Amino acid sequence: xxxxxxxxxxxxxxxxxxxxxxxxxxxxxxxxxxxxxxxxxxxxxxxxxxxxxxxxxxxxxxxxxxxxxxxxxxxxxxxxxxxxxxxxxxxxxxxxxxxxxxxxxxxxxxxxxxxxxxxxxxxxxxxxxxxxxxxxxxxxxxxxxxxxxxxxxxxxxxxxxxxxxxxxxxxxxxxxxxxxxxxxxxxxxxxxxxxxxxxxxxxxxxxxxxxxxxxxxxxxxxxxxxxxxxxxxxxxxxxxxxxxxxxxxxxxxxxxxxxxxxxxxxxxxxxxxxxxxxxxxxxxxxxxxxxxxxxxxxxxxxxxxxxxxxxxxxxxxxxxxxxxxxxxxxxxxxxxxxxxxxxxxxxxxxxxxxxxxxxxxxxxxxxxxxxxxxxxxxxxxxxxxxxxxxxxxxxxxxxxxxxxxxxxxxxxxxxxxxxxxxxxxxxxxxxxxxxxxxxxxxxxxxxxxxxxxxxxxxxxxxxxxxxxxxxxxxxxxxxxxxxxxxxxx
Length: 489
Ligand code: G6P
Prior knowledge:
6-stranded parallel beta sheet; binds 6-O-phosphono-alpha-D-glucopyranose; glycosyltransferase; 9-stranded mixed beta sheet; alpha/beta; EC 2.4.1.15; 18 helices; alpha,alpha-trehalose-phosphate synthase (UDP-forming)
């Protein structure tokens, strides 16, 4: 496409995600301070020069008054962000309820909520209604800002209804949907009361993307088995209309981490940490404090390792960073207490007057601290029970070119499909296996470490987030062109 002055203009990309990539803090009646968060998706899209990206999403705060909403909208516009305002009740029912208490555990194979089935069934209905309502609110905002030719890219399990709402507005809108979590086996998905409605809503998109081929295959199976539609090598077909389904494994902005290591602030952190941790091998876990991350199982495996390897007890330390998340959901509150209890027990059993085996922090770290931590680590432990991809494993590898540390990685993380040959793969439910892998990693010779690291480093630096975003959007453009050609024939 061209501007009137003849200069080529970039295609507009409307990125719609539940959460905007900013945190907003209210400073006064009509003033806000904003801080951009640097997640994978943000850096992916910042790096893509062909598109002019705008974000549409929830700012993560309740803003009931019009003055506050107008002021926040103005402030966000400078960051190319457009807010969707959700009130407290919708957030409770849609975000805490349907998204994080129903879809999130189900998609990670943890099942539907078990307790008080009747109450759950009743609240299920109202939560699903709120989910659809919230998705419609996102669609209304997209529609307000949409211009012909724009690409609309919807993200994640929060917005499975959005493709349908958008196509109801304009069937010609180019709509892609990408899932950042696993898509479970069709036998799991079929337990969901709203299984068919959700699948049909997603199928309204032109292109549906997943991190791995397995997730894409599960989705196609769900459509064939539950909806009785036809699965083809290209995707899913319904009465002559094809929804393209494919795998697009995400990556990270590896250069940002590699360059980060040169930063004087990072170097200073590295120096301090090396002094403090001298004489001990460093093991690291960095996770959101979420049940899918398998933090209790990881701690139990570390405890078993200490039990069985007394000579290592004062020579190794586990740094576990557990970033609090979704703290209003009761399951997450229970998990926090459980983790604290296990850490306390292990430190009580194996600590001495001068050192404890586990440093557990309930907080997030800034980018510089995180880079430094990755760089001083000998063994990273990523033992998710299920994980869409897991980019902590990628970030660790990017920061290890000097040290060549070992990655212990769950076979149930999407990353196992790309870093499997370089990592030690484990079943996180098998505590003995993980404990043995810790011993194997700590004792691994440098030749083995070098070989494994090289494999992973090549992958992480070659398959970046930027490439992921470019591939998805160009595939979406191609899919729409192919569909137009098909209808003309
Ligand atoms: C996962 C989801 C993301 C989500 C993130 C943080 O990675 O796939 O969509 O944004 O967790 O969770 P939160 O609920 O805090 O947005």
